[in-house]
Amino acid sequence: MTEMMNLYQAKGNKTFHVTSVPNIGLLKNIGFRKGTKVSVEKRYAFGGPVLLKVEDAFAVAIGKDIATQVAVEEAALS
Fold first, then answer.
1. Taking residues 73-78, what's their average pLDDT?
2. Can you give the CATH number for the domain in which 60 is found?
3. End-to-end CA distance of the chain
4. CB 4 within 8 A of CB 40
5. What is the DSSP string of 17-41?
6. pLDDT per residue as tens digits for the range 12-39
7. Tally of structural domains, the chain
8. 47: Cβ–Cβ under 8 A, 6 or more apart, which residues?
9. Which among 19, 24, 21, 26 has a CA at the least distance from the CA of 4?
10. Range of the domain at 63
């Protein structure tokens, strides 16, 4: 069974699948949808943004306020 968490809680060096996305235009514009594969590259200190790798294609930073609204689960090892 995989553990559900929000994107801000997700640990680095692991791959996650998005399970729930809030209705935020920024996320739609960068292709965040249910099932999107993401990994946390860096979490900045003091509640700063999270740097993500999206679909192994590009990196993007999103703020903690948005990251806490995106639900993810750890991807199964293949």
1. 80
2. 2.30.30.90
3. 15
4. no
5. EEEE--S-HHHHHTT--TT-EEEEE
6. 889 999 999 999 988 988 888 999 999 9
7. 1
8. 64
9. 19
10. 4-74
Determine contact, residues 2/73, Cβ cutoff 8 Å. yes
Length of the chain: 78
Say if residue 78's pLDDT is above 70: no
Our measurement of the distance from residue 66's CA atom to the centroid of its chain's CA atoms, rounded to an integer in Å, reads 10
Place of tokens 């960068």: 30
- The three-state secondary structure class of 16 is strand
Among 65, 60, 74, 7, which residue's Cα sits nearest to residue 30?
60
- Scored b (16 or more CB within 10 A) or e, 14-28 reads ebbbbeebeeeeebe
